[in-house]
Amino acid sequence: MRTYLIAGEIMHRDGLGNVQAIRPGEVNWMTAGSGIVHSERTPEAERRPGASLFGIQAWVALPKAHEEAEPAFFHHAAAAIPKTESDGAALTLIAGRSDGLVSPVRTYSDMVYADIVLEDAARYQVKAEHVERAVYVVSGALEVLGQAGRFEAGELVVFKPGAELVLRGAGATRLMLIGGEPLAEPRHI
């Protein structure tokens, strides 16, 4: 389970004894493996009228050989997470590799998991670095150059394997890029 916050604060607790706050730009990366108990809650001090909490929680399937791995938890400070920015497009590489960057977050398979923020009309090229890729539109709207239509907040856009695409923000847009190599066998989460 991967937790990435955009606004607010959450307190993580688990059966391994970890107690860790997570704030915007930080990454909590937990591997359930053979089993773990955990909770993520808003800290008491943050439970007030008007408080904001917004984040993305993603579950990543483990390769069959690692599905019974020892449970683990790692916290990564925002300063340790690689970032790049160019021409109105900002990328924060949460896990994996992309755009010449490599995240310090340990994964069991080759993947990409990135937070991308586009200014109005800014472009981002999705390279064919990974076979399977998709973007989840968190806010705003997205156009894929050379294709008709736009994709709105709450939509998941799955790309054809091997395709190199250029995305354009239709207004201020935030999206999550996810992908990796196909796993050898069907996985269930």
Automatic annotation (TrEMBL):
<dbReference type="InterPro" id="IPR011051">
    <property type="entry name" value="RmlC_Cupin_sf"/>
</dbReference>
<protein>
    <recommendedName>
        <fullName>Quercetin 2,3-dioxygenase</fullName>
    </recommendedName>
</protein>
<dbReference type="InterPro" id="IPR012093">
    <property type="entry name" value="Pirin"/>
</dbReference>
<dbReference type="Pfam" id="PF02678">
    <property type="entry name" value="Pirin"/>
</dbReference>
<dbReference type="Pfam" id="PF05726">
    <property type="entry name" value="Pirin_C"/>
</dbReference>
<dbReference type="InterPro" id="IPR003829">
    <property type="entry name" value="Pirin_N_dom"/>
</dbReference>
<dbReference type="InterPro" id="IPR014710">
    <property type="entry name" value="RmlC-like_jellyroll"/>
</dbReference>
<feature type="domain" description="Pirin C-terminal">
    <location>
        <begin position="113"/>
        <end position="188"/>
    </location>
</feature>
<comment type="similarity">
    <text>Belongs to the pirin family.</text>
</comment>
<dbReference type="InterPro" id="IPR008778">
    <property type="entry name" value="Pirin_C_dom"/>
</dbReference>
<feature type="domain" description="Pirin N-terminal">
    <location>
        <begin position="3"/>
        <end position="60"/>
    </location>
</feature>
